[in-house]
Structure formats: C-alpha cells, structure tokens
Amino acid sequence: MPATPSKRRFLTAWLWPAVALIAGAAMLSGCADRAGTALQIAQGGELSPETMAAGRFDLRLFTRIDPAASALTIYLEGDGRAWIRRDRLSDDPTPIDPVALRLAAGDPTTSVAYIARPCQFMGGAEARGCAPRYWSSDRYAPEVVEALNEVVEELRRRAGSPPVTLVGYSGGGTLALLLADRMRPGDRIITVAAVVDTDAWTSWHRVTPLAGSLNPIHAYTGSSGVAAVHLAGERDDIVPPALTEAAMARLPAAARPLNRVERIDDFDHACCWSREWPAIIARLR
C-alpha cells in the first residue's frame, strides 16, 4: 500500500538527515583513508610527519633529514584530487594516491623531504588560507610559489645547507620549475610527467586557462643556472611528451640549454614511476 502524505512527510523528515549523516561520514572516512594511506607510505620510507606554516598556508610535510648528508632531495606533490568530475571541483585536493610521496619513500638516500601542496592533508577548503581556487585557477599562483620556497629554504637550513634536488610530480613539477630562479648554484630540478607550458596544456585539453597561475614558460628565466631534467612517459595522455618537448623551444633563451626532456618507454602519467623510481633516481644521480 502506498504511503500516506503524513507517512511520506515522516519518512522524508527522518531519511534526509540520515542520508546527509551517512554522506558526511563517508566523506570524512574518505579523507581519513587518504591521510592513513599517506602515513603508511611515509612510515615505509621512514619519513616523519609534520606541519609547517608558510605564507598564508599550513603545509603537510614528511621528512627524513640528516644534517650530515651531502645532499637533500625534496619532493613536491601533484595536483591531487582537484576535481570530482570534469565540471565539479573537489572540496579537498588531498590525493587519493600521493605519487610524489611514494617517490620520496622509495628514495634510498639519507636526506629526503616531501611537501604536499597547499590545502592537501590539511582539510581542503577549511584549512588556513585555503579556497578551491588554489587547486583550480590559482594552483600555481605567486603566493603558492612563495610558500613552497619558504619551506624549501627552511628544509635546506635544517639539512645544513647542502645542494638541493627538487623533484616535482605532475603539477608539483610545474611548481618546481617556477622555483628554479630562486634556487642556488649546485641545485637541480627533476620533473616527472609535469606541465611546462600551462597555456599550451589547457589549450590541448580544451579546458579553462589557469588565469590566476604563473606559467613557467613566462616566469622562468634560467638566471640561477640550475639545470632541469624533464621525465615524460611515452604513453602519457595527461601530459603528452610532445607538449613538453614543444615547450622547450618556447623557454627564454638563457633557460633552453639548462633543460632537457627524457622520454620513458611504456610509462604513462601514473604508471610506473613509483615502482621504478629507485633505479631512475639512482641513474640520474
């Protein structure tokens, strides 16, 4: 027998709060699962968690720093879960699979640090200084670059000021290149499946340009003399290697000799960087 109007009102009054509660619990569980996954990955690489205030943000770090080491490698995370679907932003960009953290955990050297992007692992839009524009249009904004530079220099100081290798995965590689002019002689950059020209990349994907972001093609001058290697997966359809290679010709003249692209057969945007990373990073050192 169909429910009467009064019964339907009762069911609606009871059901929707319950649905909202279940949905909210699922979202919290999803965030907790992502944080728990990151902690497990970090523990496997003997990386300790911490939070550092930098500029307008609080940034999540995992570190294993030895002040006696002769070098420091710092990893920058990718864009994370920026979008739920093509037309809907996430409210928390914490990555489901933190690839850069996996790379850091697989790095066998003694002094290693990982920096998550602003708002990742910190509560998304609820975190200090955060708004969804920081994982959409402003993901490479000047204030993001400033905050990351502040953390890089603090980690360098803790490590005894050795040369730094900055490794950026995907959007983290874009930011690594935006930090290049601030780095010191003897430092270097490795990007992994990274966007070098954001305008060309958004045009290729037919998506909205990143209006509030810096583009490495225009912002990176090569003035520091820091060299960069750009690793590109031959099968990557998120950041095709042809886009990266084409970007090299558009870099400022002083920066072009400092940059080279290396294609990796059978790799795509996600596979198989973390699995093969110990051998890759050993070869690049």
Characterize the structure shown.
36% of the residues lie in helices and 19% in strands. It is α/β, with parallel strands linked by helices and 285 residues long. The longest helix is centred in the first third of the chain and has 40 residues, at 5-44. The chain is globular. The chain starts with a helix and ends with a helix.
In short:
The protein has 285 residues and is of the alpha/beta class. The chain contains eight helices and ten strands.
Determine the number of helices (DSSP H or I, runs of at least 4 residues). 8
Largest pleated sheet: 8 strands, mixed
Note the quaternary state here: single chain
Strand content: 15-25%
General shape: globular
Enumerate the strands of the largest sheet in spatial order, edge to edge or round the barrel.
Answer: 1-2-6-3-7-8-9-10
Structure summary, number of beta strands: 10
Instruction: Work out the radius of gyration.
Output: 21 Å
Query: Would you list the SSEs in sequence order as H and E?
Result: HEEEEEHEHEHEHHEHEH
Residue-averaged pLDDT: 90
User: Between the first and last Cα atoms, what is the distance in angstroms?
Assistant: 74 Å
Uncertain parts: 1-29
Structural class: alpha/beta
Helix content: 25-40%
